[in-house]
Write a structure and sequence with these properties.
This protein is an alpha+beta fold. It has a two-stranded antiparallel sheet with strand order 1-2. Strand 1 and strand 2 form a beta hairpin. The radius of gyration is 38 Å and the shape is rod-shaped. It starts with a helix and ends with a helix. The relative contact order is 0.07.
Length: 156
């Protein structure tokens, strides 16, 4: 009975007086179903009208429904801690990755602008381009003109 719950010192009564309001609305019967999962324990309260048929409320199919509902509610409640820890871990991994990328970008001059401003980098690019052009013009580098594979495929 909800009236006996109102006398329980552990029931939340607070400034909202929730239990008293429920009783005034005609809610008089309450069923409690406990749950215990990995990181959480508790009870789920199911409220009914004062004039509800207690035999129907205690029917096997209704009890199975209440137990199943409690399992779902309890599982959702219990997973909150694990979900919070996982979420915090993912956030920290993301922050660490951002810090690592930022550190690498700021420590090494890898931008195109920094390459253009660096005479050593530009000279190395010129040498590489010249070597590639020479290899293309001279064939295999031994003075023999070897057709490039892409031109050869087009001729077939």
């Amino acid at each position: 009975q909800i009236k006996s719950l109102m006398n329980d010192p552990f029931v939340q009564r607070g400034s909202g007086k929730r239990m008293e309001k429920l009783f005034e609305l005609g809610i008089g019967l309450v069923a409690s179903v406990p749950f215990s999962f990995q990181d959480g324990k508790g009870i789920v309260l199911f409220f009914s009208r004062s004039n509800a048929n207690p035999e129907l409320l205690r029917a096997v199919h209704n009890e199975r429904y209440l137990i199943g509902s409690t399992d779902l509610i309890g599982a959702n409640y219990s997973i909150r801690k694990a979900r919070g820890h996982s979420s915090e871990l993912r956030k920290n991994m993301f922050r660490d990755a951002i810090k690592k990328v930022r550190k690498e970008l700021l420590s090494e001059p890898t931008s195109i602008a920094s390459m253009v401003l660096s005479s050593d980098a530009m000279e190395q690019l010129r040498r590489e381009r010249q070597a590639a052009q020479d290899a293309e013009n001279n064939g295999d580098g031994l003075g023999m003109k070897v057709p490039r594979v892409d031109h050869f495929a087009v001729k077939l």
